[in-house]
Amino acid sequence: QVQLVESGGGLVQPGGSLRLSCAASGFPFSSYSMTWYRQAPGKERELVAHINSFGTSTIYANSVKGRFNISRDNAKNTVYLQMNSLKPEDTAVYYCNGYANWGQGTQVTVSS
Fold first, then answer.
1. E-assigned strands of 1-112?
2. What is the mean pLDDT for each group of 10 consecutive residues in the chain (112 residues)?
């Protein structure tokens, strides 16, 4: 059974940082690319960051370039999203996607 479990969300002030984690199981994690998406209230789900199976190639949404960093640890079957210089517009539920499966999401709220 494929499982993707996100963690690390929370409430943070503008300018702050958070690190999201997505623990994967039930599929050969090291063979698959992984992607973080987010969905803000009333908006469509959007791609935030993508990483290839080796961790050597990444793609970012323009809105997060230079602030967010996606990485992975294939030994731990985990993908991370380091989010720095957070803005109120980063507020959303963040989802992990891999092997055509979705996690349950983790809420990130950026507010003073």
1. 3-7, 10-12, 18-25, 34-39, 46-51, 58-60, 68-73, 78-83, 92-98, 101-102, 106-110
2. 97 98 98 98 96 97 98 98 98 97 97 96
